[in-house]
Amino acid sequence: MAKYFLLSFDDGTVHDKRFVELLNRYEIPCTFNLNTGLEDFVWEFEGHPVVRQHLADTLQQYRGHEIASHTLTHPRLDSLHPPRLRREVEEDCTALKKIFGVQEIGFGVPFTVCGEREIRIIKKYVRYIRLSEYATSFALPKDPYHIPIHALYNDPDVMEKTAAFAKNDLPDSLFVMAGHSYELEFLNHWDYMEELLKYIKGFGFEICTTMEFVNRCYPQK
Ligand SMILES: [Zn+2]
């Protein structure tokens, strides 16, 4: 009976550095979903510019954590024709494999929408797909291409949900917590996040990367 707890953080901004340092202090692994086509793209969040990293400079920084694809340029997937969707996934995976020297790669959906049409196309290129949809239970998904999320780190009920997860008695179960490190910075959530990580760590869950979870629960034939 295993309770798998995964962290899945998106976009690869400069604030990942401080977040990784915090995670490392508590020996908590995380999956970082990155876009290789947006290194110089800056956008605004709560009036602050959000700056991405140059990924070739982050090999040491992400050591011990997982790198996954988040598409090349972070489009809304349901708006894309199949050739563009294939390019967004395939080129990002190829670039990430080259930069980080990994063989296998997973995928975190950008924005919120990813239907069965998109899943059918994306799954050809990746080991798993983490959706943005909220799960309705802690049960393991039917396959590795429908991994839901259970909470955003700053959902008001994230601790309650974590406590409910600790009490669940399914044979194996899953909790995925998602977020963005720039929110920690611009919403002033660093201290809160440290408390949350200590709280999660205290339950003795199987905290692992998404790829480790997938390889254990959905072994390749
Ligand atoms: Zn994103």
Question: Mind explaining what this structure looks like?
Answer:
By secondary structure, the protein is of the alpha/beta class. It has one domain (2-217): TIM Barrel (Alpha-Beta Barrel). It has 7 helices and 11 strands. It has helices at residues 16-25, 82-100, 116-122, 158-167, 181-186, 190-201, 210-217; strands at residues 2-10, 31-34, 42-45, 48-51, 66-69, 107-108, 129-134, 147-149, 151-152, 172-179, 206-207. Strands 1, 2, 5, 9, 10 and 11 form a 6-stranded parallel sheet that branches. A 3-stranded parallel sheet has the order 6-7-8, with no helix packed on it. A two-stranded antiparallel sheet has the order 3-4. Helix 4 links the parallel strand 9 and strand 10. The longest helix has 19 residues, at 82-100. The protein binds zinc ion (ZN). Residues 10-11, 70, 74, 110 line the site of zinc ion (ZN). The site of zinc ion has 5 residues, from loops.
Short description:
The chain is of the alpha/beta class.
Q: How many helical stretches?
A: 7
- Ends distance: 22 Å
Overall mean pLDDT stands at 97
How many E strands? 11
Strand and helix order: EHEEEEHEHEEEHEHHEH
Per CATH, the superfamily is Glycoside hydrolase/deacetylase
Q: How much of the residues is beta strand, in percent?
A: 15-25%
- Largest beta sheet, briefly? 6 strands, parallel
Give me the secondary-structure category: alpha/beta
Ligands (ions, cofactors included)? zinc ion
Poorly predicted residue ranges: none
Count of the separate structural domains = 1
Give helix % range: 25-40%
